[in-house]
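Predict structure. Chain length: 322.
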Amino acid sequence: MINLNTLNLSIIIPLLNEEESLEELFGRIERVCSSENLSYEIWFVDDGSTDLSWSIIENLKIENPQVHAIRFSRNYGKSQALHAAFARANGEVIITMDADLQDFPEEIPELYAMVVNGDYDIVSGWKKKRFDNVMTKNLPSKLFNSAARKVSGVDLHDFNCGLKAYKKQVVKSIDVYGDMHRYIPVLAANAGFRRITEKEVKHQARPYGTSKFGTERFIRGFLDLVTLWFVSRFGGRPMHFFGAVGTLMFIIGFFAALGLGISKLIAVSKGVYGHLITDNPWFFISLTMMLMGTLLFIAGFLGEMIIRSNREHKNYTIDEII
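Prediction complete.
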């Protein structure tokens, strides 16, 4: 049910050099929300644009009090843009979408209804039919999403779809940093928000400008996925990983060295001389394992100390807020 006593929607739109699409995008959002009697605010986050995007946003703000905007001093990335807007959003439901008009604002009412009436924590868009280059985007995206599903355990077809809807408490409970915007559903699931579903959404070819993301994003995405898997399992207890592996390596190296020492003593007791332990390559392998085991154990201990200190992920500078 729509709650008339609260702000229904916060619509967050990160952007970089999208001057051609902003006015059309705002007009479509305004028409959709007005027709559905949804109270809303829009947060544009200008991630270091060098075109007229900020001027257009300023003009929109003059005539539309529901428009808010954040301007970064340079390009920091989509995750930082979302982080800044999540901290300031006040809507009952938070919707994120791209500014390039490949996402359809007409999907907003149904996304909102699924969160509110369906009691979902997250509703993620699924661009089942894509209008992108098959070799540079579609095929790598399918491979990437398949790997993400298996590693994360979150059953979504399209992790990288910018059109998503969240309950307010979800975005207030997670930190989005680095390039982790792709994995917000995984971050939310790790934080205990497990009512996650997806909705098939419309997609169209970009009508203006060019894509700001290259194929290297899949490499970064895979590395971020490995990081997320590790952090989700051992982020709060690094000693369980580094300490366990370090201890195991030290024990193996110690007993291997001990075995070499015992075999040398047995040989000496039998009157066999002439071979030093250091002539055996296994001595150096054993020594290396003991040293690496000790270093890994120390790394786990230091990790435990570090996570007990407060870490701030806000690694960006805001130029202006209106």
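Summary: Residues 133 and 139 are 9 Å apart (CA to CA).
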